Amino acid sequence: MQRISYKFSHLIVRPHCKMAAFSTVAQQVKLDILSKTHALDNAAKRKEISRTFISDTVTVPTKEMYEYATLSTLGDDVYFEPSTKALEDHIAQLTGKEAGLFMSSGTASNQIALRTHLLQPPYSVLVDHRAHISKYEAGGAAFHSGAATTALIPANGHHLTLDEVKRNMILGTDTHFAPTEVVALENTLNGTIFPQDEIIAISDYVHSEGKKMHLDGARLWHVAAETETSMKELCDPFDSVSLCFSKGLGAPVGSCLVGSAAFIAKARWFRKLFGGGMRQTGILAASAAYALTYNFPQLPRVHALARRLEAALEEIGVEITSKAETCMIFYDPSSIGVTYDEIADRATDLPEPLILGGSRLVVHIQTTESAVDDFLSVVRQLAEEKKAAGFVKPPPTANGGNGYKDIYVRRAPKTSA
Ligand SMILES: Cc1ncc(COP(=O)(O)O)c(C=O)c1O
């Protein structure tokens, strides 16, 4: 007979009691998350998303995407899941790199890329001051990699230039400084397209100094679609590139990091170390594959809708502070005497509300033409009211400041809920 120590004897239960106890536990554990109204709720959510301008991360899987995804393989990705491996290989081939690695998010992909590039401190990462890596990843470069960040304000207000990178790269042996080890660019950045010639010039210089180039290409798909340039050509100047499936492409989850085989092998190690090694990811990889096939071709339509929105805003007299080069517009309604809050309040009060943040308008594959029309009606109506109340657009003033104005006014979206 098996001997059980006194310490564990309280765990022994008789068979009939065990059944009763188990059904109690099962009762406590079980959960039904589908409400009686879930179909209606989801239809309402899809409607809300079609009228949400705050981001393209709100895009949701369609029934067709999920149907395709359920046919994916059932492996465990810590041991190379087949559908996920097929996605990684495809993205590597598409971008002209040796290998790819599926990640849970763009933040994980960027941060693991930096961690993999950065070997022996002290070191720093050079970025545009608006870059997601520097501004919106919770200080990850410092936390995960112990890296300092050199954040530059581009003088042209649009993109960093070779000259700016050259002047601000930290090189040499002066022990006061943390040498620049990686230059991390972003394309698109706030929806704008980084000129490829400038990227190549920066890359040639950075590589000539023996340093690395990383690209946050969360929305590089938009550059490829808008400029009709291959992903390989766009990625060639970089040692590593992070691409997202869950933003403009409309997949539910996931990003892919690409680079050399050795780089990705090490990044796979860091992914596990960071707790980002996922298991049955086939369903996510297949959603991404569906997005590449059926949603990428929709981007030209999305960009055209953004341009239509921009043109109509200009016609109303609204100042456009960053043009619709792809799917985003930044605007300033003070030129018609209106505030972001006034617009958001009116938009919330519509029979079918619009969800707005501050100065950024993002158009995505699920944005409807009628959402754009309704937004324009709100702005047009407010402009007319202000004009009737005597608002006159002030003449432009000479720029007496340092020339820099942050165009990104972030406000929590106002919802009717
Ligand atoms: C340019 C850019 N890079 C990276 C990320 C991070 O992606 P995630 O939210 O999947 O972590 C975002 C998120 O919106 C982004 O806009």
TrEMBL record:
SUPFAM superfamilies attached to this UniProt entry: PLP-dependent transferases
Gene3D superfamilies: Aspartate Aminotransferase, domain 1, Type I PLP-dependent aspartate aminotransferase-like (Major domain)
Modification sites for N6-(pyridoxal phosphate)lysine: K247
GO MF terms held by the record: L-allo-threonine aldolase activity; transferase activity
Superkingdom assignment: Eukaryota
GO biological process: glycine biosynthetic process; L-threonine catabolic process
Cofactor(s) for this UniProt protein: pyridoxal 5'-phosphate
Matches recorded under Pfam families: Beta_elim_lyase
Signal sequence bounds: none
A GO CC annotation given for this chain: cytosol
Domain Aromatic amino acid beta-eliminating lyase/threonine aldolase: 53-330
PANTHER family reported in the protein's UniProt record: L-THREONINE ALDOLASE, L-THREONINE ALDOLASE-RELATED
Official protein name in the record: Pyridoxal phosphate-dependent transferase
